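User: Can you fold this complex?
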Amino acid sequence: MKTMQLRVKVNGEPMEWSIAPGELLLDLLRRHGYYGVKRGCEEGECGACTVLLDGKPVNSCLVFAAQVECGEILTVEGMARGDRLDPLQEAFLDHGAVQCGFCTSGMLLSAKALLERSPHATAEEVTEVMAGHYCRCTGYLKPVEAVLAVASKKRGKR
Amino acid sequence: MSGRHSVVGRNLRKVDGFKLVTGASAFTDDIHLPGMLCGKILPSPHAHARIRRIDAGKARALPGVHAVLTYRDVPRVPHTTAGQAWPEPSPYDTYLLDSKVRFVGDRVAAVAAETRAIAERALRLIEVEYEVLPPVLDMEQAMAPGAPVIHDEPESTKIYDASRNLAGHILREIGNVQEGFREADVIIEREYRTQRQQHCPIEPHVTICWLDENNRLVIRTSTQVPYHTRRQVAQILELPVSRVHVIKPRIGGGFGGKQEMLLEDICGALTLASRRPVKIEYTREEEFYMARTRHPQILRLKMGARRDGTILASHMRVLATTGAYGSHSATVQGNTGSKVLPLYRAPHMRFECDVVYTNAPVAGAFRGYGCPQGFFAQETLADELAHELGIDPLEFHRRNVIRLGDVDKLSAQLGEGKEGLPRVIRSCGLPECMERGAAAIGWEKKRGAGRSGSGNLKRGVGMACTMQGSGIAGIDWASAFLKMNEDGSFTLLAGASDVGGGADTVLAQIAAETLGVTLDKIVITSGDTDFTPFDVGAYASSTTIISGGAVRKAAAKVRAQVLELASKMLGEPVEKLDCAGNEVFTVCECRKAVTMTDVALQALYKEKLQIMDGASHFNTDSPPPFCATFAEVEVDTETGQVKVLHLATAVDCGVAINPMQAEGQVEGAVAQGLGYALTEELVLDGAGRPVNPSFLDYKMFSAKDMPKLTTILVETEEPLGPYGAKSISEVPINGPTPAIANAIFDAVGVRIRKLPIRPEDVLNALRAREAGRVEEGAAK
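Assistant: Here's the predicted assembly.
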């Protein structure tokens, strides 16, 4: 099969990967061991495969690998610094926002992009962003609370 | 309560939380094995057909294909896919592959190939000639004389009456309902219809099989029932159980859909045929109709009461369909009677049920297990009865619900597919649930407030009371094993299956509390048939009470060993010793102590002793958790749209081992219950094909759709549970549907008796009423 070369940064690390035509970003990342990127529906509806592409959340099941040439990707694996978790990850644990954890990485990344854009995010904004992620375990209340807790801490620091 | 214990009753972080928030490879599909093949199943395009000819020659010849299986290539062993304790009460009516297909999506053949693309191409190359048979799609026609017989194969067993498509039949009576109705002043009888709901775990079913270095079949799979799966795969593939090793990693949600041996048999067969690792992962579309659903039911309920509001008799008749195979058929439907009717103290109760086969996707276990259907009927009818009697529904419930000390005799008649055990209510927080839930919703002020709201937007409130069980009495059992390590930590090996609800954390908290150590000192491994002792699995709301009971017993035995050695080290009698905060100390003024680490090092390197022990546990009763659900809705009388504004759920789960996790169980169940009430239905067309098998067309609640939620944990102390715990995961899913239906009545005065409650149904009911037709029906 024909392959092509792709240059991309993943979690700050420059990569040069061979990709197949038509290969999805979801499959590429999982093939290289970024298992935090989850396959939930392959139709852009559930949000479990969300990664940040140049800081913006995308459903990696709807993006061809070839489209991310020279792009910067952040997956959930890149959120913590060693054992030091991102404040969002801490908040998800402290608020009981994680049950099965399958949708968690997508939620964390969307929330991270939101707080970068809007550090004082309101409940409405957080809910709007979380609506892009189906979760069958939590009923969404605790994930929204966790994100809001981080947003209000950021507010406190200002 | 939290003051009494140092670990139990605390909102501690999930023990598996770190790996879940960092995206560590924790789930079934998060590994890649060298040479792993992609397995795919060829689904039947017909609802009912016989395979006249099947030729896999071209598929087998395709480069990259390593195995193709049809019914001719595999053993024909009748079995059930229901993940239940042996001997399973579900019919043995299923085959690994068969020459007959019984629903759109039934297995025709399976392939294993080097890539997904090759596997999909191979499926298209399999030539199949079908003799298409007339299907049975309407459950009300399934038993009609002359209806096509779905299970005409002679080998199947335990089918109630295959010639009439009757998978199961139940008839139970307490007292004499005819007598009860004769004494009643008011009798109401109504019909209710419930739909086909799908579990929609965000992780679809996925299984990876391989042969290990000892040539044993290893099955890494998204299951709630590793032990039942091991036994069933061994049975189907005709292997000794000792040749099978089932591993349950982290699971991306189950909700009952994974209380099923679903992909493990066919994936194992492909591995045996190809001698290569094989992965089968359902696509989202396949998950919708090739996994399992909730059983659709038609319920006819009749209740009679005295003028003072005392319920005298309840008579429930249920027609349900299990789809093409009878997985969980009699047991789910048994629950519709046995866990629903006894909510009220009526002396006369009768439950009749037929479960029929249809050529539809297979129904199975689903959170609530028959109760959501039953409570929709019962709690909506109770509201109507209260209205008829001029009694406030809250007061009506106060007068009639089961109480502390009551004995539920219907459960004695309706066990897990056979006679059960009487249920004694040893803890009951239902009265407090009702009062606190009512306060949260503002019941006194809002109920019957005269269709409040402005213009076409009308508001109303409704309520429902529900209960469930905590494990299956006399059947569910579990075991656990603990051993002490050099640093004073303990390895806990539990057969239990955490499917995302936090069971590992709860079990570790129980162990830590009993041993007097902090939670970080418990290292848990669970759900692995080679390394953990037996457990029936995660279902029937059993894990906290049954598996937790086993952990508590095992930990108590290990604690005794720790104290015995510490007594030797401290020169103090065991009776004077206690342990807490990772040390053992004397309970007197002259406080002497040794750390757990001291004890461990003494044991392992001086005494040459491994401190360790295990225990098994079961209960002969199934203590019900109780729940009161209150809903406030806004109904648009121009569109029929129902918006839930506030949903308050008050639950008595005994002592919550981890209250934050318990709340999460309630909120998640409520979200699923809201979808069940208002939006979710897997629709089939006239040929039995699924119309909406995708998240685009099957509507679950998202974060934006959620109403305001209030969750109240009402604490009671259950004598049969570890540290007073009962269960929580299922009971809150029962309430939203009837509470919303009753709130709609309060808002606009119409009764909706069919799920999901669609805007057009509400609008039609409003128009019918305006047109002057008597909405209440002819049954009165």
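The radius of gyration of chain B is 27 Å. Residues 775-780 of chain B have pLDDT under 50 and may be disordered.
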